[in-house]
Amino acid sequence: MKRSIFRVAALVAGLTAAAPALAQDSLLNVSYDVARELFEDLNPKFIAQWKADKGRDLTIDQSHGGSSRQARAILEGLAADVVTFNQETDIDALVEGGLVDQNWREAFPNGASPYYSLPAFLVRKGNPKGIQDWGDLAKEGVQPVFPNPKTSGNARYTYLAAYAWGLNEFGGDHAKTQEFVKNLLSNVPVFDTGGRAATQTFAEREIGDVLVTFEAETGGIAAEYADKGFERVTPSISLFSAFPVAVVAEYAKKKGSEEVATAYLNWLYSPEAQKALAEHYYRVTDKDVAADYADKLPEVKLVTVDEIFGGWAKVRAEHLADGGILDQVFVNR
Amino acid sequence: MSIAHHKESRLVPRLLIGLAVALTLLMVVAPLAFIFWSAFSRGWNVYVSNILHPVTLHAIWLTTLVALIVVPLNVAFGVAAAWAVARFKFPGRGLVLTAIEIPFSVSPIIAGICYLLLYGRQGLLGPWLMEHEMQVLFALPGIVLVTMFVTSPFVAREVLPLMQAQGSEQEQAAVTLGANGWQIFRRVTLPNIRWALLYGAVLCTARAVGEFGGVSVVSGNIRGQTNTLPLHVELLFNDLNAVGAFAAASTLTVIALVALVVKSVLESRRHQA
User: Which residues form the signal peptide (chain A) (predicted)?
Assistant: First the structure.
């Protein structure tokens, strides 16, 4: 056993010695699990741009996984130059670990979210149940499918979006809103633990009438199961879901990659990148690009966690904590 | 009466055999067939382009490399450990025996987390490693270490019972004939344990190639760098590329099937020997 450790140590020494020999820029972008195709599309475009601007070669490595797990790995030494996550709380964890600047939200436009999404619907071919809005999901005989809001970040957005629609519909009446959310939750035939499992329940096991997930994923799912003819439906109101980005300053400084890391994240706001993002069904901040894709990504009234619920800390305390509002409307399970 | 009894006694075994065959078909053959059916569901060309995707090729190469490093080390470790336990009496021998088996009883993900806590930036050795710019986690060494931990018992567990059963008479005879240590090992010990050793090595390889839980903790999932084949399958699957995921899974399945065939051949050889 001991001998083998020495061998590995020798290997490590060899690998680290070989690394600086490559005289070119490199970036490690640590990202969430379902963004593989998105960055496979984006990265070559930025690499070409960087070459044209600076005349330097660039390689971009991608790491994908559940974004909380990714944050954990970075805290333990995964040397990411930039993170592109789907949960702000995971970047805050990096701030607590001293790796990301505390004011990361101000470092880039739009709260450091170059693109965003919202909970939206995917219905069966021809929309036989006529599902148009959140209210339809609580009707008798309609079966919505989404993962368990207790375990899935994706479903947490769904729960909050439905709640926000209810508050708007019932003039801020929390009791009526909670009754509505309760009816909606009791219509769900099966709560999977994660988004991918819920997708399978809906698409492959053919359970339920409507899949609720991020709009950005509905396009990919419809394409993957093209033969089933799923249709995308955008509700009247939904919840702004940030896809925040940040430079992992601590590692980037050490590697001397701050310049390219910052340029990369800034480039995500450029028309070229925004177009590619819209192609993947993400909502974008560039007004012209958004207008071009208006038929694909129809208008929707977006509300934020801050305006409706007073921030994530309050959501955790009032809604998600044990015995909170989510538990109260989730009792019949 | 006797005829009825005779019929019944033939019926029961047939029923049981039928049940076993049906269960095997349902639980083993059907899923395996489904992997290949799904992998080829969009045709041969899509399958080939999925396999030949540089990132998939790298995952295949990385998994092979890990097995190439881990299996010889574990063969050496397994033989040494089995030799020590079977041939010598020393204080703490029972402890060593138990220690060898620990990886069997510990979930791989626990192993991964232990390495994370030991070598991580916030861990015991992490700060020192970072100071000396040695990357253990989220790089090849971490993956190798965890895989080695998870697969370490296989060779020892196969070789040890055989060594204990055979006893040390032949080796003692060799000593009296004037053979030195290396000669004894090469001419006497090794031929005796040869088949068990190979059998253990095959099991170790199959496990090393398929290891997921522990590696997923320490890999960092960097595509084209630290993404092993099982991790790559998960990534493709989560990313709605089912055909790609099943194509990658089919290469894993082929490796597993080859290991299975080699294993059964070795098993029959061992029983003849």
Answer: 1-23
Q: For A34, name the nearest residue in chain B, comparing CA atoms only.
A: B239
For A64, the closest of B139, B141, B221 (CB atoms) is: B221
- How far off is chain B from A175, nearest CA to CA, in Å? 38
Chain B residues with CB under 8 Å of A3 CB are 76
- Does A73 reach chain B within 8 Å, measured CB to CB? yes
Flag the least confident range among A10-14, B108-112, B123-127: A10-14
**Considering CB atoms only, which of B130, B152, B240 is closest to A220?**
B240
How far B82 CA sits from the closest chain A CA (Å)?
13
Close Cβ partners of A111 (under 8 Å, ≥ 6 residues apart): A105, A242, A244
Residues of A in contact with B237 (CB under 8 A): 196
B240 contacts on A by Cβ (under 8 Å): 34, 199, 220-221, 223-224
Q: What is the DSSP string of A29-62?
A: EEE-TT-HHHHHHHHHHHHHHHHHHH---EEEEE
Q: Which of residues 220-259 of B touch A (CB under 8 A)?
A: 220-226, 235-242
Classify residue A126: in a domain, yes or no.
Answer: yes
Domain membership of residue B1 as a residue range: 1-39
DSSP state of B82: H
Whether residue A75 sits in one domain with residue A127: no
pLDDT over 80 (residue B143): yes
**E strand spans, A225-288:** 231-233, 237-239, 241-242, 245-247, 283-284
- Residue A195 belongs to what domain range? 119-239+300-329
Band (A75; pLDDT cuts 50, 70, 90)? very high
Q: Do A65 and B221 touch (CB under 8 A)?
A: yes
DSSP label of B225:
T
Instruction: Examine the domain organization and report whether B28 and B73 are in the same domain.
Output: no
**CA–CA separation, A75 vs A69, rounded Å?**
10
Longest dimension (CA), chain B: 85
Predicted-complex ipTM score:
0.80
To the question of pTM greater than 0.90 for the whole model, the response is no
Q: Could you tell me if A1 lies within 8 Å of chain B, comparing CB atoms?
A: yes
Closest residue of chain A to B236, computed from CA coordinates: A36
Per the structure, the count of domains in chain B is: 2
| Helices (H), ranges, A139-211 | 153-169, 174-187, 195-203
Same domain, B168 and B215: yes
pLDDT band at A24 (very low <50, low <70, confident <90, very high): confident
Q: Is B67 left (phi over 0), alpha (psi -120 to 50) or beta?
A: alpha
Query: Between the CA of residue B57 and those of A59, B95, B253, what are the distances in Å?
Result: 18, 42, 16
Compute the distance between CA of residue A259 and CA of residue A240 in angstroms, rounded to an integer: 30
> Within an 8 Å CB–CB cutoff, is residue A36 touching chain B?
yes
Burial of A132 (0-12, 13-18, 19+ CB in 10 A): middle
Contacts of A180 (CB under 8 A, 6+ apart): A135, A138, A162, A166, A169, A170
For residue A50, give the CATH number of its domain: 3.40.190.10
Task: State how many domains chain A has.
Answer: 2
When CB atoms are compared, the residue of A33, A61, A76 closest to B121 is A76
Q: DSSP characters for B2-38?
A: HHHHHHHHHHHHHHHHHHHHHHHIIIIIHHHHHHHHH
Any CB–CB contact under 8 A between A18 and chain B?
A: no
Nearest CA distance, B269 vs chain A (angstrom): 30
